[in-house]
Amino acid sequence: MTDPNLVGGGAVDAAELSRIDDSATTTKKPRSLWGDAWRQLRRKPAFVISAVIIVFIVLIAVAPGLFAHGDPGMGDLTKANQGPSAEAWFGYDNQGYNVYTRTIYGARASLLVGVFATILTVVFGSLVGIVSGYYGRLIDSLLSRLGDIFAGLPFVLGAIVILTTFNAPGSNPGQVTIIVQVVCSIAVLTWPVAMRIMRSATLVAKQLDYVKAARALGASTPRIVFRHLLPNTLAPVLVYATIALGAAIGAEATLAYLGIGVRPPVISWGVMISDSRDYFRADPHMLLFPGAFVTITVLAFVMLGDGIRDALDPKSR
């Protein structure tokens, strides 16, 4: 004869086991790729430090008035070439401009060039890459050879040719015009890298079952590309974009230093470095402080990109 107490106890045990199993299932719910990557990134000091630096630089660019008071275009020749002091933390340049104030306000132009050049590079390169990888054959060959041609152009030489062609000697383009020209020059000479990354990711993704199933069900090409391929091939391109943003900021400084990029009255770190190159021996503070901001910002973006790349790569864990 069955003992009622045992039956009752068995019922309670079954309920408890069911609740524990449901709890364990909820707890062990698999994380998404980005969720798992974020969990990995939070544990890396290099990522946290670089992210803090980038947030700080972006805040400076958005609201420079919070960090520096005064007009960056106002010079006092009586204070020309004075070194750092309590009044001017970074000193004055040869025109009597406050170097600290101009460094703070110069972050905006440098960051704008870097951001827009990166967006244009990634968008155009990704579109070309995904079309090349998806269609393959003749289209892939033609687009790949086109990318090889642009990739073979030396960056500095190509930028000199492009910018001097659109700006004849003695011309004085407006601020917006020269910034647009610099952004387009950087994008034209760097898009093949994004194209190659997206092409490689597309060649792998289009062989997966969900893409083959969508094609078998009669899905249109735009739907397959934008609904299935693009979301699953963005990760490596976004990693490249993070690193490329820092490189674009460095490229802006390089072109300004050569006198073919952003120029006065635009204030940028590159313009400040260019203006101070003839005074470095006597007044190094004019170059060191904007140069330090360029170096730290580029390094922060590179470290951020390296951290994201490692977090998204299962082999590095």
TrEMBL record:
<dbReference type="InterPro" id="IPR000515">
    <property type="entry name" value="MetI-like"/>
</dbReference>
<dbReference type="Pfam" id="PF12911">
    <property type="entry name" value="OppC_N"/>
</dbReference>
<feature type="transmembrane region" description="Helical">
    <location>
        <begin position="178"/>
        <end position="198"/>
    </location>
</feature>
<feature type="transmembrane region" description="Helical">
    <location>
        <begin position="146"/>
        <end position="166"/>
    </location>
</feature>
<dbReference type="InterPro" id="IPR035906">
    <property type="entry name" value="MetI-like_sf"/>
</dbReference>
<dbReference type="InterPro" id="IPR050366">
    <property type="entry name" value="BP-dependent_transpt_permease"/>
</dbReference>
<feature type="transmembrane region" description="Helical">
    <location>
        <begin position="46"/>
        <end position="67"/>
    </location>
</feature>
<keyword id="KW-0813">Transport</keyword>
<comment type="similarity">
    <text>Belongs to the binding-protein-dependent transport system permease family.</text>
</comment>
<feature type="transmembrane region" description="Helical">
    <location>
        <begin position="237"/>
        <end position="260"/>
    </location>
</feature>
<keyword id="KW-1003">Cell membrane</keyword>
<feature type="domain" description="ABC transmembrane type-1">
    <location>
        <begin position="107"/>
        <end position="305"/>
    </location>
</feature>
<protein>
    <submittedName>
        <fullName>ABC transporter permease</fullName>
    </submittedName>
</protein>
<feature type="transmembrane region" description="Helical">
    <location>
        <begin position="111"/>
        <end position="134"/>
    </location>
</feature>
<dbReference type="Pfam" id="PF00528">
    <property type="entry name" value="BPD_transp_1"/>
</dbReference>
<keyword id="KW-0472">Membrane</keyword>
<keyword id="KW-1133">Transmembrane helix</keyword>
<keyword id="KW-0812">Transmembrane</keyword>
<feature type="transmembrane region" description="Helical">
    <location>
        <begin position="287"/>
        <end position="308"/>
    </location>
</feature>
<dbReference type="InterPro" id="IPR025966">
    <property type="entry name" value="OppC_N"/>
</dbReference>
